[in-house]
Amino acid sequence: MPTKPRARDLGIPFAGTPGPNNAITDVQGVTVGYATIVEGAGPTEVGKGPVRTGVTAILPRGKQFDPVFSGWYSLNGNGEMTGTTWIEESGFLEGPVMITNTHSVGVVRDSAVSWQAENGLVAPLSEDLYWLLPVVAETWDGVLNDINGMHVKKAHVYAALDGATSGPVAEGNVGGGTGMNLFNFKGGTGTSSRQLADDEGGYTVGVLVQGNFGTRADLTIAGVPVGREITDLMPDTSWKREEAGSIIVVVATDAPLLPHQLKRLARRVPIGMARTGGYGANSSGDIFIAFSTANAGAFSRKGNTSLEMLSNDEMNPLIHATADATEEAIVNAMVAAETMTGRDGNVSYAIPHDRLRTALKAYNRLND
Fold first, then answer.
1. Looking at the annotation, which residues are catalytic?
2. Using one digit for the tens of pLDDT, what is the confidence trace for 98-110?
3. Which of 58, 219, 254, 326 is the residue whose CA sits 20 to 30 A from 266?
4. Whole-number pLDDT of residue 236
């Protein structure tokens, strides 16, 4: 995997201690895979391109059927995350979390069903009878991508799922984040993690975001109003617009949390988002899901299971870690993203690292 500077490499200060990869995969068992589609240039021909999109897959326990406790939350609902009504009802996430563009949710959902069935990742009611309600989330990449061309195919979904691995995670213009924008800079996929101290349980919290939200004037990094310091490099598009949405956030932890506690973590994601300048605008789909890899084997169609549950009074470090990791994951997505030219010659510019450092240094917020 090519080495790119990340936010901490630029000297940006963040609270908390990251795990070894500073990624959602620091939660043992979690794997991440991508399919990235970049094809064509010039004027849009619907169905032909240009294409700037993809698929992201997050597998809580890798390629095995062992549902995890989960909870979800929407700060602003101008978006989609399928399967969440069953999570709310049952408390379980029964497969991967997929992220793509707005108009590809259907094909990704159908393909996720096929992939789980072909790999035997199901729990039959009897013989070959079962149901699957995949979780597929989206953000809109129509500024750079021929989004109505339906370019995400079954093969791309399978590639993301089959290619999911642990370890370092690529960021920026990859997977579902390929064509996304953040605060009128190029955005996309970002990740981060936090490792709790032994006296706090030693648990890990990992976050992965697909960031496509925010207006330039609101961009804040490490408490610095960066968007008011770097006012040029606005997107060069065929129409004038101020983009305010959306963001999908996936939170993973190995702490033994039950569904209602995981919903509490999902509800703390907006704290990290707000630190960067997000506020849940009307046009924004800000949808978050959290899951725990603890309590393996908890899912069962019959009989009772024994569970471990963390005390609510001991959740504060996890709550703090969720907010901190969300903030850093968003900034990592911006730092990793590269300038991209897409449909109709539209351009989204990467945030300039040197000028970002200069702005932070002027406010004495740079770690040298």
1. 246, 284, 286
2. 999 999 999 999 9
3. 219
4. 83
